[in-house]
């Protein structure tokens, strides 16, 4: 199966939101196929610098095409943010972009095992060099854990029934392929959501679990705030409500004065200042963008700026 090109979502809006200073240091936490990275490089001057991350070795190989001394691509999860920056002697950065989730090639290459549209080994890892595949996880996980994952990450009503069906199926051999899992879910889920394959929720939930997508996000956000220089921007594009909820809450909490017990003898001026200020309202793709790239329809972008200490 040949790779579908990745169409960058909110390209102009995200790069504008970074408010790029030509000599600044920027981080693209999710290189993908480099749509955002290339646009950032186009706005940076000769002194500027862009450090990008991707945990997918195929994305990293694609990024080797960019021969630019201002650019470096790190093969690591973005939760390694602080460590990777420290290794490079970078203390402060002027902007960080996270365009979360998976790229189109990851979804559309059958052998990644992320989609029920193709029959392939049930892998689902973004980083194929480490960690358990979805099949390996399903082979060992207790029914209670499978149920929780399907319920929390897929908001699947039939989470328990599917988990039980998986446990029964694996006694007769592993649930090893996307086709086997899709067929099992299709048999187990009794209702049909319009326009949606019955296995959609299960596949989303397992992908989030295998790649620890929500943990990664929760780990990186405080590291970004600690590294942003005053005036530096954090720009995050989310693709489902679980991610967006984490981003929204994090930005909201970091942009509020700390909650202290009432009647504490502290003057308002002595209170620590919030670390972030929200910038504008959430941004959604335009109707034209959604028409041209239906995968952008669930995207939402939030922007915050680091305050002065
Ligand atoms: C939506 S795509 C990014 C597309 C990119 N902005 C572009 O324009 O080409 C998300 C990419 O981030 C990577 N990714 C997702 N979560 C990651 C994480 N926790 N650490 C590092 N890379 C991650 C995926 O492997 C994927 O290549």
Automatic annotation (TrEMBL):
SUPFAM superfamilies per record: Putative methyltransferase TM0872, insert domain (SSF81799), S-adenosyl-L-methionine-dependent methyltransferases (SSF53335)
GO cellular component: cytoplasm
Subcellular locations according to the entry: Cytoplasm
E.C. no: 2.1.1.199
Catalysis performed (reactions): cytidine(1402) in 16S rRNA + S-adenosyl-L-methionine = N(4)-methylcytidine(1402) in 16S rRNA + S-adenosyl-L-homocysteine + H(+)
Predominant subcellular localization, coarse grouping: cytoplasm
Superkingdom of the organism of origin: Bacteria
Keywords noted in UniProt: Cytoplasm, Methyltransferase, rRNA processing, S-adenosyl-L-methionine, Transferase
Molecular function GO terms recorded: rRNA (cytosine-N4-)-methyltransferase activity
GO terms under biological process: rRNA base methylation
Function per UniProt: Specifically methylates the N4 position of cytidine in position 1402 (C1402) of 16S rRNA.
Protein name in UniProt: Ribosomal RNA small subunit methyltransferase H
């Amino acid at each position: 199966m040949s790779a579908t090109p990745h169409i960058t979502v909110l390209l102009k809006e995200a790069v504008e939101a970074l408010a790029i200073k030509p000599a600044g240091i920027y981080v693209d936490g999710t290189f993908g196929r480099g749509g955002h990275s290339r646009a950032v490089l186009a706005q940076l001057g000769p002194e500027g610098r862009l450090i990008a991350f991707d945990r997918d070795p195929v994305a990293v190989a694609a990024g080797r095409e960019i021969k630019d001394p201002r650019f470096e691509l790190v093969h690591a999860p973005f939760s390694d943010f602080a460590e990777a920056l420290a290794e490079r002697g970078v203390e402060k950065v002027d902007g960080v972009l996270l365009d979360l989730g998976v790229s189109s090639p990851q979804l559309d290459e059958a052998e990644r095992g992320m989609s029920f549209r193709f029959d392939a080994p049930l892998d689902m890892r973004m980083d194929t060099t480490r960690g358990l595949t979805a099949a390996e996880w399903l082979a060992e996980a207790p029914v209670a854990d499978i149920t929780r994952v399907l319920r929390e990450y897929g908001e699947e009503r039939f989470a328990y029934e599917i988990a039980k069906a998986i446990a029964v199926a694996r006694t007769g051999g592993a649930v090893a392929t996307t086709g086997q899992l899709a067929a099992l879910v299709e048999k187990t889920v009794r209702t049909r959501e319009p326009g949606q394959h019955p296995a959609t929720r299960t596949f989303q939930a397992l992908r989030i679990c295998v790649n620890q997508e929500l943990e990664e996000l929760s780990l990186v956000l405080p590291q970004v705030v600690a590294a942003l220089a005053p005036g530096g921007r954090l720009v995050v594009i989310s693709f489902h409500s679980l991610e967006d909820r984490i981003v929204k809450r994090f930005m909201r909490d970091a942009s509020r004065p700390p909650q202290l017990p009432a009647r504490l003898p502290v003057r308002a001026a002595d209170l620590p200042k919030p670390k972030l200020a929200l910038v504008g309202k959430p941004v959604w793709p335009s109707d034209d963008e959604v028409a041209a790239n239906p995968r952008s329809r669930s995207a939402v972008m939030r922007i915050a700026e680091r305050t002065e200490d």
